[in-house]
């Protein structure tokens, strides 16, 4: 039995320098000259005869273009430090160029933000400028799983679903930083989610190692997705739990749970009736959620009015409605015949044991001829049904894999 039930998963205005197309500010020396001229100790006047120096900033005015790095240039001398700060106190980090006269931010200016620029040269003089960026005409947001501080099984990918289509996939992917405690190798892969939205997942080359600490930083503030701007960053962190694998043999009607490679339990079960739409999917599925007692209605998955029941110990495996769950009404078929509407059914006792034992993110490796095909990539977490080479090719960065270091 199965049913598709979706988871869910002081303001300061910074003034621009009026009447100029380029932001410029005089660098003033705070010292007294030997020619009898005097300087203001508070930085109010330059020494008589000094040559005026200036900075220029590539972004100007109150409607500057977002999504561009901030570039600060010094007309003469050497830059010692540049600070670019927004009204919330955040700073754009950056680097001084080899010539010592240019500075470029590492990240871009975000839409709808005001920035203050302060530059210091190698003589201790300072200059200031300011600009603001145009507001975003459309904002893109995302949903990220697993959630913060989660513990998940060895097969759970990092998965991001976007509210609006992502057309600039490479630009977005460059801002997604995965860090692990043991240098796990993995790659991003793009797809259309089962919901029809744009989705990108990060999958390790092989199942995660138990105990791995994983952090994802989606540094997207100021990035144009092609159909909306990101106006904030996102992050999550997870821990990989016990090394457990569930192996389901459709042809022999058995469900076996292995921990650290050793078999822990062997359970008789009955899966989907072969030969039609009621057959189960084969392949490597990932347990998506423990949903407990839920209503399963055959009409929600296109199987007419065959059933409408409350079902206990329900563990979701696909978006299309394949679960492992208790099915006491099918007791005569456990261990000998596949006779369900696509789900993996067990006795109440055995289903409770599995439900209490498995973790979200545990792989269910389903094999056998009594299947209607292999689970699709986007029907839940189907990426483990692709080879490593196939998965790498789904990255927007030339199909190259990334190694997460930490």
Characteristics:
Immunoglobulin-like, five-stranded antiparallel β-sheet, mainly beta, six-stranded mixed β-sheet, 3 helices, 406 residues, 3 domains
Description of the structure:
By secondary structure, the protein is mostly beta strands. The chain folds into three domains: 26-132, Immunoglobulin-like (Sandwich), CATH 2.60.40.3780; 142-241 and 388-403, Sandwich (Immunoglobulin-like), CATH 2.60.40; 244-375, L,D-transpeptidase catalytic domain-like (Beta Barrel). It has three helices and 27 strands. Strand 5 and strand 6 form a beta hairpin. The longest helix has 10 residues, at 348-357. The radius of gyration is 29 Å and the shape is elongated. The model is unreliable at 1-52 (pLDDT under 50).
């Amino acid at each position: 039995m199965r049913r598709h039930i979706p988871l869910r998963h002081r303001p300061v205005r910074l003034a621009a320098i009026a009447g100029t197309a380029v932001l410029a500010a005089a660098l003033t020396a705070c010292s007294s000259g030997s020619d009898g001229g005097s300087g203001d100790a508070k930085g109010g006047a330059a020494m008589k005869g000094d040559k005026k120096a200036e900075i220029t900033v590539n972004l100007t005015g109150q409607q500057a273009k977002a999504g561009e790095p901030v570039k600060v240039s010094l007309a003469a001398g050497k830059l010692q430090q540049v600070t670019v700060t927004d009204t919330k106190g955040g700073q754009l980090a950056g680097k001084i160029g080899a010539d010592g006269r240019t500075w470029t931010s590492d990240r871009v200016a975000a839409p709808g933000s005001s920035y203050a620029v302060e530059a210091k040269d190698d003589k201790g003089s300072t200059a200031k400028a300011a600009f603001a960026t145009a507001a975003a005409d459309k904002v893109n947001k995302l949903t990220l799983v697993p959630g913060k501080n989660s513990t998940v099984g060895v097969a759970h990918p990092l998965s991001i679903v976007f509210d609006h289509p992502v057309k600039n996939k490479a630009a977005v992917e460059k801002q997604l930083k995965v860090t692990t405690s043991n240098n796990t190798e993995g790659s991003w892969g793009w797809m259309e989610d089962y919901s029809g939205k744009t989705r990108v997942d990060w999958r390790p080359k092989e199942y995660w190692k138990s105990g791995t600490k994983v952090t994802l930083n989606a540094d997207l503030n100021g990035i144009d997705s092609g159909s909306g701007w990101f106006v904030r960053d996102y992050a999550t962190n997870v821990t990989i739990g016990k090394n457990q694998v569930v192996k389901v043999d459709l042809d022999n009607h058995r469900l076996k749970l292995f921990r650290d490679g050793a078999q822990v339990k062997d359970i008789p079960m009955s899966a989907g009736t072969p030969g039609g739409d009621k057959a189960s999917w084969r392949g490597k599925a990932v347990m998506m959620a423990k949903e407990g007692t839920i209503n399963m209605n055959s009409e929600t998955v296109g199987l007419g009015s065959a059933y409408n029941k409350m079902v206990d110990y329900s563990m979701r495996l696909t978006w299309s409605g394949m679960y492992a769950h208790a099915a006491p009404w099918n007791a005569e078929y456990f261990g000998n015949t596949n006779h369900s509407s696509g789900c993996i059914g067990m006795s109440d006792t055995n289903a409770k044991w599995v439900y209490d034992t498995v973790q979200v993110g545990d792989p269910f490796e389903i094999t056998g001829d009594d299947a209607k095909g292999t689970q699709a990539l986007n029907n839940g977490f189907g990426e483990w049904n692709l080879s490593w080479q196939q998965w790498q090719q789904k990255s927007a960065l030339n199909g190259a894999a990334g190694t997460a270091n930490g």
